[in-house]
What does this fold into?
Amino acid sequence: MPEHSFFIKTDWPGMRNDVGTLNSSTLDTNISIPLEMDGPGIGTNPDEMLLGAASTCYIITLAAMLERSNVSKTSLTMESEGIVEIERGIISYKKIIHWPILTLSKGCTEKEFNTAKKLIGKAERSCMISRAVKGNVIIELEETVLIVDSGE
It folds into this structure.
């Protein structure tokens, strides 16, 4: 498979508590240190961006796996939490927790349901970002799989 490159341009005009910018072909935002770390909390920050990368990679990977396995979903949503710890002045990204909620239609078969349950874990192990941080950041899943009438 060929290589792909992604580009981001950042500009940091001042010192620690200033506000910079981050630009790419699809993203244009301010960046700063978060309020929780005594920064200005304007725009996004590296911690939030890592969480966003892990979250979007996981949910897109899961959706692709469901599609390839012919498992029809009614909806797929997720909340994620990134936990950062400061120990002896060193800031470390400790853990990411994903709470995916996958809803299947009432007409799904037991095989589709079981396949969906397996793919929830497989997607995390297959996600490029999860593989990139493996060994440095713990990633946990607390999934919910629901079956509902398609009219609900």
User: Anything to note?
Assistant: Helices lie at 46-68, 110-126, 128-133. Strands lie at 9-11, 20-23, 28-31, 73-87, 90-105, 138-141, 144-148.
